[in-house]
Every structure is written in structure tokens, then in C-alpha cells.
Design a protein that fits this description.
- The structure is a single chain.
- This protein is α+β, with helices and mostly antiparallel strands.
- Among the domains are: 55 residues; 236 residues, no CATH class.
- It contains 21 helices and eleven strands.
- The strands form four sheets. Strands 8, 9, 10 and 11 form a four-stranded antiparallel sheet that branches.
- A hairpin with a 3-residue loop joins strand 9 and strand 10.
- Helix 9 runs antiparallel to helix 10.
- It is globular, with a radius of gyration of 28 Å.
- The relative contact order is 0.10.
Amino acid sequence: MVMEGRKASYLDNKITLDARMPLNYKRIRSLRGTKFVSSQSSLDVEGKKSFSRWNRWRFSKKAKGVIVFALMAVMLISVFAFLTKQITSNIVPQNTVNPISSTAANTTQSNDALSQPAQIVNGSARAAYKSSLTPPGFPNIIGSAQTIDRTVWTAVATVAWQYFQNSVEGVNYNTGLPHAGGYYCPQFTDWDLGGYIQAVIDAQKIGLINTYGDWGSFARLDKVLTFLETRELNSAAQYPYQFYFSTDSHAESDGATATVDTTDTGRLFVALNNLKVYNSNWTQRINNFVYNVYGNRSDYAALVPKLKSEFATSNSIYAYYICSGFASFWPNQLGSVPDKILSNIANSPTVMTNNVALPKASISCDPLLRSVFDLNNNSSKLLSLANQVYLAHEAYYNATGNYVAFSEGGGPSSFIWEWVVLPNGDTWKITNGGSSYLEIEPIIYNKVAFSFLALYNTTFARNMVVYLESNFPGTGTTGYSEGGSDSAGSIGASSNTNSLILAAALYAIQNNP
């Protein structure tokens, strides 16, 4: 029944995609098919006419001999050329890492091309532009690599960055704002916006994007900051809505009475602080709306006292990451609290899972790995926790023969959270926002597998990535998929997945030259 349901959903999606395809592109596709048939027919007719004309000619015996000799020479040359081509096509290049390494190695030319989208808006031009960004198909980068080095990681980052190309999958062409879940899921939260800001920073550090140009880092970040400076706020509380549309920058209507989602806000603050550190030219604009300098934005400072009291007793890795974001702007009030949260986690009672000890705390890989990659001066307590969580994943595989890469993201029918461990001591549990556990097969998330490979470079981590490359890869033109499972199949690409893979790739490049 599950497979039948997925089959029906796939067919529905195909119908939707065809219906939303620009009309002129559908017409061009049909005309191209007709033109090919017509051209082939005209060639056949021309061949027959030429044969008839040939029969009407009369030649001397000597002339015929010359013609026969010439024909034989042409035939021999053609046969030789054919054999040469066949032999050449069977030669396998040596030491090839992946099919896009040349793209990664020559970023200046490709970035300049990507920064000039002026006339490309829709129809066949847009389709041609999209298809020209990267070769079709998905590169088996890790599986084909002899050594996992910076060249390989640059190639991985190049694929992940494809998600954020304008008008392709993850960024709206007109507004420059991100799509949380691909082209047909245009909503985004502050968590997604923070992921996009971090992705732009990481892509520039790797060398995948230029500073200037219509789609250089400056233009992209300017659009995001302009949105944050001017976006509509919740009229009841003067805080951001939870969801906005990337297509027109407007808020979704739900959440009209909510104050603010501090989880999403904290993640956004982590990225904004990293942007200030990376390029201080953005500092004043960021401080103006975070601190509400002009009085027309949100009063985030009013949230700090309550957050301080709540975070101080928490043992959630989400709380650590979120509090770190707020603490980067209010260090006097919150500067010591993130370390207090890590201490709470480290001092929690433990539970054993496949002979690996884990703290009885709220632990999922997305905020844990984000903390390692996004935050500066990681403490030994954080790195020790990340290592234990990694070892728990490897031990799970050794005990069951099944890969797991627990995180948050798209599930078979809804957004899900996969918990490696919870405060009550339960391990390997899945929820979708409610209090009950979901009895579903876990999604193996690409972002976690690549992060483990970047951090530890073990045989287990590499084998899990190769398994995902083979079974739930996504495409080379839209970035990496979320991942998948045998029962759910492949889960489509998302902003969070590809931004975290970019962060993992940057970490590997900087720490494993």
C-alpha cells in the first residue's frame, strides 16, 4: 500500500509539473520532435532523388574506374575513422575523481556566467539556463573518489550550491529569498533564512561564488537584509511571522497571535553574527534591526531575560545552539549560558545504546552539527558530545545492519524530528511535533552522513554516503536530496540539507588540506 501511495503521488506530481511548465517551452518541445521527424523524412526523399539522378548519368569505362577507386578510398577512410572512434570510446580515463571537478576547479568563469541573468525570466530561455548550470545526472563523487581530499569536498560543495542557484530550485529569481523545500515549496522561516545566509558565506569561502555581479554574494545578502529591514511584522506583537513566501516577501496568514519563534530567531542570529564576523561592512545594518535602533522593528531585547532563565536549566542541544545565537548579540546577559547548557547535558544521567553511553538529553543531529560547524571556538564538551553521537550511529549499524542518520527534515508525509536520545532515556525515536512517537522507518539524512564524513573520515561514514549516493541522491542540478528510506523512497532537496552539506564541505576543506 505504501508503494502504491507513493506511485500515485508521483503521478500527481508529474501532472502538476507538466501543467505548470511554461506554455512556450511545451510547444518548443513538441515542435522539436516534429522537426526531427520532418527532417529525417526529407533526407530520405533527397536520397531517393539523388539515386534516380545517378542512374541517368552515363560515364566512360575509364571514368567509371576512377569513380570506383574514389568510392573505395572513401569507404576505407570511413571504416578506419569508425574503428578509431570505437577504440577511443572504450578507453577509461585514469584518476578521475568525479564528473564536475573541472567545474569546481574553474569557479571564476562559471560564477561570472551565473551573475548575468538579466534576460532569463521564463519559458525556453529559463529552461535552457537551468539545464546549462551543471551536467545532467548525479555525480557519484564519494563512491568514485580514491582519496577524500579538498578537491573531492569542493566537488561536493559545488553540487550542494546548485540548490541555491537563482530560479533553479532554492532561491526565488525576483526576490532573492530562499525556498525551504525546493521550487514548489516557496515558504521559508527564519531558520531557513539563516541557513541561506550561512550557505552564501560558506560558498564564497570555498570559492563557488564571486562578491559582485547580479547574483554575487553582495547582491544576494543585500536582498536578504533588505527583507529583514522592511518585512511585515505580526500586528498583534510586532514580531516576525513564522512563515513568509519567497515569491513576494509577504507573510503567511497563520501565527497572527504568536509572539515570536525563538528557535528560528536564534538560528538566524547565529548566521547574522557570522556574517558580521566575515564581513564587517554589514555590521551596522544588522545591528540596526536586531537592536531595533529606529523603533520600527522587533524588540528582541525584551525576550532576553526570560530566555536566560529558561536556557539556564535546559539540557537540549537545540537550546545550546539557539542561545548561542542570542548570546552573540547580548553577550553580557547570555554569554555564559551556552556553556551552562553543555554542562547540563554532560552531567545528565546516561543511557546505553549498543554499548555507547549517551546523556539523557534532547539530542538530534541538525543543531548538534550546526553548532560544530557554525559556532566559533567549540568547547571540548561539544566536540565530545558530537563524537559520542557519531559512535552511537556506527554502533547502531554494526548491531542492526541498517544505516541511520538522525536529524530533522522531510518525512514520508510530514516534517519529522528524529531523536538520537531524549531526556526520559528513550533512544532512536521519531516525532512530528506531537507527543507520540511515529512508528515509521527512519529517514537517512544526507546532511548527517556528509557531516560525519567531514568530521571523522571513517570507513563507516564513507560507506553510508556511498549508500545514499546510490539510493537517494537527488540530482546534480538541484543539489542533494534530504535522503530517504526503503519504504518512503527519496525525499526531495531542501535548503537545510544543502546548507549543512556546504558547511560540512567547508569544514573538511579547512581542516583536511
